[in-house]
Amino acid sequence: MEIKEIVLPSINKFASDYVKGLPQVNDFFHYDVKEVKVYEKRYHDLMERYFNRNELKQTIEAYMNKFGIREEVRNNLDLLAQDDSVVVIGGQQAGLLTGPLYTIHKVISIIKLAEEQSRLLNKPVIPVFWIAGEDHDIDEVNHVYVEQDNSFKKKSFYADHPTKLMISDIAYDHELMEKWLKEVFVSFEETEYTKELFGQVLQFSKQSANYTEFFAFIINELYGRYGLLLIDSADAGFRSMQSSFFEQLILQNREVNAAVSQQQSRIRECGYKNAIAMDENNANLFYYDKKDRVLLEYNSDSNMFNGKNSDIELTAEELLAVAKHSPEKLSNNVVTRPLMQEKMFPVLAFISGPGEIAYWAELQKAFELFEMKMPLIVPRMNLTILEQKIKKDLWDTDMDLYEALVHGAGKAKERYLDSVEDDTLRMLHQRLKSQFERNHELLSQAALMSDKGLSPILKKNAEVISTQIDFIANKIKQSTESRNQLVLNKYTRIDHALRPNGGPQERTTNVYYFLNQYGAGWIDDLMSLPLEANSFHKVIEM
């Protein structure tokens, strides 16, 4: 494997300006990630604060026991309990088979940055992955994309679930899951690794009670040897740790709302759109009763907390009692999750996607409200895996890698077809059509002078003949494509590999495609590369 770093255009303007280090964007964060000593600065700031590291260690250990705790994970759990430890953390929803590749890219980014800073700071820096099991949007996690009929199709696992259950509370039918997994693996090319890989995944699915456990089994198998710690945001033990801060969030919910709104105004004044949909009545917490996850609002007139549809109504005292005695009934939203993470973990750096950078910027004042600073916000790595066979296709078609990554192979394919098309036939088709249109127009004008009632039939006649002329042209084009199909297939393969469904590889392709092609050792080969977080897109050449 080799790394090629290139610059690709960014879709998210705010994230792009953040990566560039523009001052007007840096002002929305507590640390400048480009500052030379910034990691040391953040580390010393964390050492001024108290974290219950022993309870955190015990909570994570209890959660991870089911998935098997490797020696490397055990060592990092012990290091986490030390007073001088910090973490690099990031999270994602628990997609089936880990979901699109960007989840894997985030895991790699977490581990690599933790390793780097542990070496540079000479302190224990632990990689942690936060599984967003408290989310309730099942459609975000219940599918992968598979190659079918010369395109990528969404392969969803369909099952009847209550719509507002947390993902971590959604059990699945194991027989249906086995059927779904078989159908996914059938879409892969069978290799020497397929049987063993499928057997392992099937076993994990049978050992799991829900989506997040299935996800955790796989991530632990792939990255446990690198000491990656896992925690599910919906874990009851973890919720218990959050009890006292839930109380603070309830007591200061108006101040939190005001702080976020104030920051959003500053961001709008700088010409950026807001990422978080705020409402003046937001309480920024969900109430969860194992049936529904209800977003709470605060009603200032009645001094009550209630759901939008009045499906629940609690006084402040009642909600505080829930936080104290039943914290598992409360759940964070996009505003309070980062605050809770900062309260629970000594976070040196948070690994973020482009959208996360934008919404974290809106939380600066909310962090200050609780006398905390935002951690270093480090963009996750953006990777594209370039297989040897696709590299050869690029060479054979003389296609530029940058064009393939940004625009896909469609226009290059059209240029090739234009180059092999018979110019004489194309010219004759155009001449025939223009001559016909001109002569038919003369005929129509003459005919209409004697009988205006002929207009519909003349119009229909022109359409039929024009269609037949185009039919011949299309048949000639199809003949050209057929004779050049081997080359055209190369363009299709390039698109499927580098720009599937018209988007980046990381948003469609699943890690099991590569594991099936190259075996479990592919992960170690990838991790052995000198990958570092920077502004470049990394093309990994196989």
| Alpha-carbon Rg, integer | 29 Å
Distance between the termini: 5 Å
- Overall average pLDDT: 93
Uncertain runs are none
Structural class: alpha/beta
Binned strand content: 5-15%
Number of strands: 15
Number of helices: 24
| Largest sheet, strands/sense/barrel | 5 strands, parallel
The multimeric state of the shown protein is: single chain
Strand order of the largest sheet: 6-3-2-12-13
Overall geometric form: globular
What's this entry about, in short?
With 542 residues, the chain is of the alpha/beta class. The chain is built from 24 helices and 15 strands.
Characterization of this structure:
The protein is an alpha/beta fold and 542 residues long. It is built from 24 helices and 15 strands. It has a 5-stranded parallel β-sheet with strand order 6-3-2-12-13. A 5-stranded antiparallel β-sheet has the order 10-9-8-7-11. A 3-stranded mixed β-sheet has the order 1-15-14. The chain starts with a strand and ends with a strand. It is an enzyme of class 6 (ligase).
Keywords:
52% helix, five-stranded antiparallel sheet, 14% strand, 542 residues, alpha/beta
Topology:
Elements: E1 2-6, H1 13-20, H2 23-26, H3 38-46, H4 53-64, H5 71-80, E2 86-92, H6 101-121, E3 125-131, E4 143-148, E5 151-156, H7 174-186, H8 194-207, H9 211-223, E6 229-232, H10 236-241, H11 243-251, H12 253-269, E7 282-288, E8 293-299, E9 304-307, E10 313-315, H13 316-325, E11 330-332, H14 336-344, E12 347-352, H15 354-361, H16 364-369, E13 376-379, E14 383-386, H17 388-397, H18 401-406, H19 410-420, H20 423-450, H21 455-483, H22 485-498, H23 511-518, H24 521-527, E15 537-541
Parallel strand pairs: 2-3, 2-12, 3-6, 12-13, 14-15
Antiparallel strand pairs: 1-15, 4-5, 7-8, 7-11, 8-9, 9-10
Helix pairs in contact: 1-15, 4-5, 7-8, 8-9, 11-13, 17-22, 19-22, 20-21
